[in-house]
Amino acid sequence: MAFEDIKVRSYDVDLDRARLELLERRCEVGPSQHVFLFTDTMGDPISRIRNSPLYIMLVAELNHELIGAIQGSIKVVTMKDLAKVGYILGLRVSPLHRRKGIGTSLVQHLEEWFIGNQVDYAYMATEKDNNASVNLFVNKLGYVKFRTPAILVYPVKSQPLKISSKIEIFKINEENAEYLYRRYMGLTEFFPSDIDKVLRNKLSLGTWVACDQGARDQFGQNGNFPTNWAMLSVWDSGGLFKLRIEKAPISCLVYSKVLKVVDKVFACFNMPALLCNVFEPFGFYFLYGLHQEGPVSGTMVRALCKYVHNMARVGVDCKMVVTEVGSYDERVRPQIPHWRLLSCLEDLWCIKTLKSEERESVNELAIIPHTTPLFVDPREV
Question: From what superkingdom does this record's organism come (predicted)?
Fold first, then answer.
């Protein structure tokens, strides 16, 4: 196959939507050799980037066959200073056409679009042990390994989780949430300059604060806050796309049916809803903007996570609560309920400068120990 036979162009909804859905089904997501996780975009292949300030999807064609796709978005975030960054996601190449330079071509075309929009840095995320992805971006395209955050996943159980009566949880409005985020997380890596638009998005279900019982009335009065408190916001990712498990062994199907019976007969077992309905499409809530203040605020983080879990129980098709946190903070990670089996404790972010004068600074960013929080934008999950 001649490299020049491949045509890379912008996504056309009329021409490509059905073909992209077929491509997505051919490309498994996740490391399992037996259980494949698929994304169901519910008829909107660009749903994952549609809420970004600026975005594009590119597709690769060969002899009128759609064989690859990639998505990219642009925003302004905090790095050492404010910087315009381009996020790469959704790289897909048909299994029959891999190892032929198609992925490289798609990434390079997307980088050209970034450069045309004055982007300072391009970055992407992958599993740490995804050798094909690491080889493409790091060894071939010049990206450097940057951060290793943890993706923590907790399945929604059939019964509510108990929250300490000593902790009070309350919702705050978007204006107050924006104030708190800019005050306490404004210098956090990858903090989006348009946090106000994130908070006001229809998929953002709100922001909640936890503090000691009795401290709510003084919260924020005259700019003062309790010694210990925590906050987070919730994004309904299931409003954009669903996840679906397919091609699992027959034992999984039998296991799922047995769990349904057990859960009905023995409700006290508190089975995860996902395991009882393993083959049905499901959504998830994503926790973002998690912040804590005070030496014992970890218990408040845990209370907030439980609160969101209980919200998810009554959410439509919500079967998981997910968050992503930086690798530096060992105080907060144990406070976030998660299953190690479903979580990725070392996700890998890679970054590349698109401006020659920034080349030394990106290398400095990569080697500096990660000692500050990392803000994960829910629009890019």
Answer: Eukaryota
